[in-house]
């Protein structure tokens, strides 16, 4: 019996190891399905550990317990913002506040506070897969109204559902929208974005992926920043596993400068400090301290990919006269490079265990449920409460944070709707350790990314001055 148990344990370990494949390798049938079920492997690991303990097979029991812990590591990220900083106290205070509010009756519709303040950089967003356009239009409009939604992303739309949404009053709540073009190759229908604020730009094809069009709408938030909202629906594995993986990873194109570019483009703080110390030593020798520090600053500044314009200006200044450099800097100041904050919502047909999805996160996206860290937000299937899996996501790039992430039921579709409140912040979004591409990266904080975020924040402060 023990031999059979060891065989079962080895099979389960191999199953869990599929989550550590390189990104793209999971695009082969039936790997997407097997990986999607790995969050439930804690059940057989627990059973094997109990049986092993009853049989006093301690080596076997220890192995089973270790794998049980390993199978839960990525899921723990949905409760911990950082492995080193559990949010237990904050969660407890929040739950006590919510309980008092329920007891005092302050959660009624009349007393419910607004969740969206676009003028102040706060947006309540909602995403839903409408299942071939069969979702209840009235319920969707009620959710938009009750949740004070400012941006709505829908997938698997049909022209009939769009008409029913209009008849139910969606245009009165969210008057601006952009729809993808209906195509025969759409996976269940086309995608759409509705917005309360008038956009400065919009397109039905924000990024080309082998799936339904990804419509985007952009609004200016400040003189230097725009916010782009997108609705995406990569193909399900049953429509082609390779197209499924390529569609997920392809959404990286929404980010101008992915974070997982070559390491030399994002040096660590230690490397920049070493460069500054070397410049200081050289300055003391030749008496040109200020000039040396300026050159070291340019090196550190241009190492960040999203500061390429500043790098070009610095190189031009070194090759031309001081007057020409001042003219170039003045011109650059008059036409600053606009930074785009991207929010992409939808049914991604994948979750953190899938290497392709983690590759998308590694490019610079943050998952709202991981950032909120108040537990799993599984959205599929709607008709049973357990077991459900995480397929729908609200992803965003730096300088946003997420809170109040929750799921809601909509009749007529097989997915739950997912809502989140996004707020503009003045510093890069903290990383969640569970988003690492591999186990070693997922356990400690990602040092290189944190260093890069620190560099960006320092440059932003310098630019503001």
Automatic annotation (TrEMBL):
Tell me the InterPro entries matching this sequence. Endo/exonu/phosph_ase_sf (IPR036691), Endo/exonuclease/phosphatase (IPR005135)
Instruction: State the source organism's domain of life.
Output: Bacteria
Residue ranges constituting the Endonuclease/exonuclease/phosphatase domain according to the UniProt record = 126-415
Q: Where is the composition biased (Low complexity)?
A: 315-335
Q: What are the alphabetically sorted keywords of the record?
A: Endonuclease, Exonuclease, Hydrolase, Membrane, Nuclease, Transmembrane, Transmembrane helix
Region spans: Disordered: 97-120, 304-336
Kindly list the GO molecular function terms attached to this UniProt entry. endonuclease activity; exonuclease activity
Q: Which residues cross the membrane?
A: 43-70
Which protein is depicted? Endonuclease/exonuclease/phosphatase
Q: What organism is listed for this UniProt entry?
A: Bifidobacterium italicum
The organism's lineage is: Bacteria, Bacillati, Actinomycetota, Actinomycetes, Bifidobacteriales
């Amino acid at each position: 019996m023990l031999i059979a148990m060891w065989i079962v344990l080895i099979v389960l370990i191999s199953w869990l190891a599929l989550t550590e494949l390189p990104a793209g390798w999971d695009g082969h049938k039936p790997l997407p399905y097997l990986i999607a079920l790995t969050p439930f492997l804690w059940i057989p690991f627990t059973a094997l550990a109990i049986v092993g303990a009853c049989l006093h097979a301690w080596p076997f029991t220890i192995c089973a317990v270790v794998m049980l812990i390993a199978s839960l590591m990525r899921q723990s990220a949905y409760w911990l913002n950082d492995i080193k900083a559990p949010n237990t106290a904050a969660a407890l205070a929040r739950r006590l506040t919510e309980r008092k509010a329920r007891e005092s009756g302050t959660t009624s519709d009349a007393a419910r506070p607004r969740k969206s303040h676009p003028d102040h950089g706060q947006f309540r967003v909602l995403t839903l897969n409408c299942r071939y356009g069969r979702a209840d239009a009235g319920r969707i409009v009620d959710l938009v109204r009750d949740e004070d939604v400012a941006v709505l992303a829908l997938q698997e739309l049909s022209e009939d559902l769009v008409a029913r949404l209009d008849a139910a009053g969606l245009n009165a709540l969210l008057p601006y929208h952009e729809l993808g073009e209906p195509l025969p190759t759409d996976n269940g229908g086309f995608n759409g974005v509705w917005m309360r604020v008038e956009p400065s730009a919009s397109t039905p094809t924000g990024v080309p992926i082998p799936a339904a069009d990804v419509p985007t709408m952009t609004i200016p938030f400040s003189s230097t920043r725009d916010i782009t909202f997108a609705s995406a629906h990569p193909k399900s594995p049953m429509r082609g596993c390779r197209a499924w993986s390529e569609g997920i990873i392809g959404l990286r194109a929404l980010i101008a400068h992915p974070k997982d570019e070559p390491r030399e483009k994002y040096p660590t703080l230690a490397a920049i400090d070493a460069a500054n110390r070397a410049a200081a030593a050289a300055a003391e020798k030749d008496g040109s301290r200020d000039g040396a520090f300026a050159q070291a600053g340019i090196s550190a500044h241009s190492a960040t990919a999203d500061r390429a314009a500043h790098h070009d200006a610095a190189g031009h200044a070194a090759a031309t006269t001081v007057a020409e450099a001042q003219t170039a800097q003045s011109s650059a100041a008059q036409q600053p490079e606009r930074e785009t904050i991207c929010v992409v919502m939808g049914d991604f047909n994948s979750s953190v265990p899938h290497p392709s999805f983690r590759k998308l996160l590694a490019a610079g996206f943050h998952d709202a449920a991981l950032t909120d860290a108040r537990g799993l937000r599984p959205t599929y299937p709607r008709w049973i409460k357990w077991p459900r899996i995480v397929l729908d996501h609200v992803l965003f790039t730096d300088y946003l944070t997420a809170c109040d992430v929750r799921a809601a039921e909509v009749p007529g579709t097989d997915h739950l709707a997912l809502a989140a409140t996004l707020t503009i912040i003045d510093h890069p979004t903290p990383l969640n350790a569970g988003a690492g591409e591999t186990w070693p990266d997922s356990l400690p904080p990602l040092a290189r990314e944190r260093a890069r975020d620190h560099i960006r924040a320092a440059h932003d402060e310098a630019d503001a001055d």
